[in-house]
Amino acid sequence: MTGWSTHDIPDRSGRRAVVTGANSGLGFVVARELARGGAGVVLACRSEARGSRALARLHAEVPGADAEVRRLDLGDLASVREFAATLPYERVDLLVNNAGVMALPYGTTADGFETQFGVNHLGHFALTGLLMPALLAAPGARIVTVSSFMHVLANIDPRDLNSERRYRRWVAYARSKSANLLFTHELARRLAAHGADVVAAAAHPGYAATNLQTAGPRAEGRRLAERVVRLGNRVVAQSAEAGALPVLYAATAPGVRPDAFVGPSFAMWRGAPAPSWRAPWTLDDRAAERLWAASEELTGVAYDGL
Questions:
Q1: Rounded CA gap, 23 and 226, in Å?
Q2: Could you give the 3-state DSSP secondary structure of residue 269?
Q3: Whole-angstrom Cα distance, residue 230 to residue 237?
Q4: Tens-of-pLDDT digits for all 306 residues of the chain?
Q5: Plot region of 44 (φ>0 → left; ψ -120 to 50 → alpha; else → beta)
Q6: 184 and 204 in contact (C-beta within 8 Å)?
Q7: Which position among 106, 167, 173, 249 bears the catalytic label?
Q8: Helices in the chain by DSSP H: which ranges?
Q9: Rounded to whole angstroms, how far apart are CA atoms 216 and 223?
Q10: Is the backbone of residue 290 left (phi > 0), alpha (psi -120 to 50) or beta?
């Protein structure tokens, strides 16, 4: 992987990709580079207005790109179901589960789930399950779920998945990112057992400067904290362009193995894509199975045949 860059992305012509949270940050870069490689890209965005602006920017940077915007609110399972039901493609070659929220004040989704767990994990769990027939119809399809090196701060608590007993924003975030990895682990196992020609992998951007870091302080009106975060993004973080590379590698590079976890090469922080260390609990088969069962029950989405 040494020196891997967007120039190494294989030709994506004739392939269809869905990227959640593609209106800004990592998601926009991933969608743009996939489109540059020839893929037809669906920008799945909560805000149609922001999605439309992102689409205009993408077309300006990649003239002639095959790209479109479709509304998807991962915090509302009705929106997830509508998105999947109205997507007019019989096959999807790539699903990038990128959208997310980080360290927000306590809140709940439209379905009553703690926001970070509901958006970061349950929304993507439901979306992936609903798109599974289209993914299985595409030979060599991939599902890439974006986690974080911050997952190391906390394992999921199966007795309190929605942080109803006690809410600590960074712990809740870490748990949602551990859930992303447990989901990938179990999904990869089920796909292999099914004999499916689909690879489920995960990636993380290290510390990349995006809007994600400022959303929490901005939501609470903590202007000083927001300014501090913005300063940290400028001084310490790598760019969204660099942070997107591990995601693009997991999504397109030949030989990516099921349940791989790709991140920056230097201390999980920055650098070229490389295999990333992950907490042992994200490889726990029993925990992954329990989370899967709970996720099916909470979302009402069953992965038929897996």
A1: 21
A2: coil
A3: 10
A4: 557 888 989 999 999 999 999 999 999 999 999 999 999 999 999 999 999 999 999 999 999 999 999 999 999 999 999 999 999 999 999 999 999 999 899 999 999 999 999 999 999 999 999 999 999 999 999 999 999 999 999 999 999 999 999 999 999 999 999 999 999 999 999 999 999 999 999 999 977 545 554 444 445 554 544 444 444 444 445 677 888 999 999 999 999 999 999 998 754 556 779 899 999 999 999 999 999 999 999 999 999 878
A5: beta
A6: no
A7: 173
A8: 25-36, 48-61, 77-86, 115-116, 124-136, 169-194, 212-219, 223-235, 240-243, 245-252, 285-299
A9: 11
A10: alpha
Respond yes or no: is residue 173 known to be catalytic.
Answer: yes
Q: What does the block give as tokens for 73?
A: 């609110």
The answer to whether 49 and 77 are in contact (CB under 8 A) is no
- The pair of structure tokens assigned to 109 is 């989704």
